[in-house]
UniProtKB/TrEMBL annotation:
The keyword rRNA-binding does not apply. Belongs to the aldo/keto reductase family. The keyword Metal-binding does not apply. Residues 20-306 form the NADP-dependent oxidoreductase domain. Pfam families: Aldo_ket_red. This is Prostaglandin-E(2) 9-reductase-like. InterPro entries: AKR, AKR1C, Aldo/ket_reductase_CS, NAD(P)_OxRdtase_dom_sf, NADP_OxRdtase_dom. The gene is LOC101404883. It comes from the Eukaryota. Keywords: NADP, Oxidoreductase. CDD domains: AKR_AKR1C1-35. The lineage of its organism: Eukaryota, Metazoa, Chordata, Craniata, Vertebrata.
Length: 329
């Protein structure tokens, strides 16, 4: 793979993942074509890790952007690390491969680099992303994610539809359930979770490192505050006075400091971080995090901001037996 390996981590299956990824989720108000435009900007700036999902409903636009950047010679397919995610209505074994094939068709690609289970809990299958009952409650489904993993994700990897497989929003006990499964063929290469200075996930990072699972940090800059997912009175991470003081010292933005913080934690299980913005100036800014370093004192001060605060709590699934956020980590 033609990647700058000094800016990549080696996954437990031998593949490489760039440590800085471009996130493509957006609230419903953002036109879908914005994701495609922003992806092209991100690739021109230097991003090679594109993090997407079926749920974001913009893979057609992102696929078109990727193919245009390949056609104009900016990148080759092997330069790009593309992640997609298995949505919750597709966790039943027979639905997994068709879901991935649907994403590949939208993208116009033969394979993805990483396919991950978006959450450990399932929703009722159907064409709609979220099915609701007569009273407006989201309808949950009970599926053993270990079967989803063994019968379906592992087979998708064997079939060459994805290079690597992993999970997202899993707690330590749920990861153990997969790792301890009899007949396990492939371990998850990563666990993508909310992670930022207000929720630094130090215990989960340590646990994952001990199992050779890479933690990928999302919402590393706080959150885009989509009212469907995030409470309106949530604190603004990038307005934090300590983060701003450190940013001023380095002549950087608070966002650059928040991203750099995750990258420098790489020695003990962190080290991969996603940055999401559809604003050209910020996309460029978010990539400029490799040419400065936070001091040990900076890192300690940012560690001290942790308050175990989650922007995304997914409370609609709080009663599901596989709801992951009731555990300590």
């Amino acid at each position: 793979m033609d990647l700058n390996h000094s800016r990549s981590v080696t996954l437990n299956d031998g593949n490489f993942m760039p440590v800085l990824g471009f996130g493509t989720s957006a609230s419903d108000e953002v036109p879908k074509n914005k994701a495609g435009e922003a992806t092209k900007v991100a690739i021109d700036v230097g991003f090679r890790h594109i993090d997407a999902a079926y749920f974001y409903q913009n893979e057609e636009e992102i696929g078109k952007a990727l193919r245009e950047k390949m056609a104009d010679g900016t990148v080759k397919r092997e330069d790009i690390f593309y992640t997609t995610k298995l949505w919750l209505t597709f966790l039943r074994q027979e639905l997994v491969r068709p879901a991935l094939e649907r994403s590949l068709k939208k993208l116009g690609l033969d394979y993805v680099d990483l396919f991950i289970i978006h959450f450990p809990f399932a929703l009722k299958p159907g064409e709609e992303l979220v099915l609701k009952d007569a009273s407006g409650e989201i309808i949950l489904d009970i599926v053993d994610f270990r079967d989803t993993w063994e019968v379906s994700l592992e087979k998708c990897k064997d079939a060459g539809l994805t290079k690597s497989i992993g999970v997202s929003n899993f707690n330590d006990k749920q990861l153990e359930m997969i790792l301890n499964k009899p007949g396990l063929k492939y371990r998850p290469v990563c666990n993508q979770v909310e992670c930022h200075p207000y929720l630094n996930q130090s215990k989960l990072l340590e646990f994952c490192q001990s199992k050779d699972i890479v933690v990928v940090a999302y919402s590393a800059l706080g959150s885009h505050r989509d009212p469907n997912w995030v409470e309106r009175d949530s604190p603004y991470l990038l307005e934090d006075p300590i983060l701003n003081a450190i940013a001023k010292k380095h002549n950087r933005s608070p966002g650059q400091v928040a991203l750099r913080y995750q990258l420098q934690r790489g020695g003990w299980g962190g080290g991969v971080v996603l940055a999401k913005s559809f604003n050209e100036k910020r996309i460029k800014e978010n990539f400029q995090v490799f040419d400065f370093e936070l001091t040990p004192e900076d890192m300690k001060a940012i560690d001290g901001l942790n308050r175990n605060f989650r922007y995304a709590k997914f409370l609609f699934a709080v009663d599901h037996p596989h709801y992951p956020l009731s555990e300590e980590y």
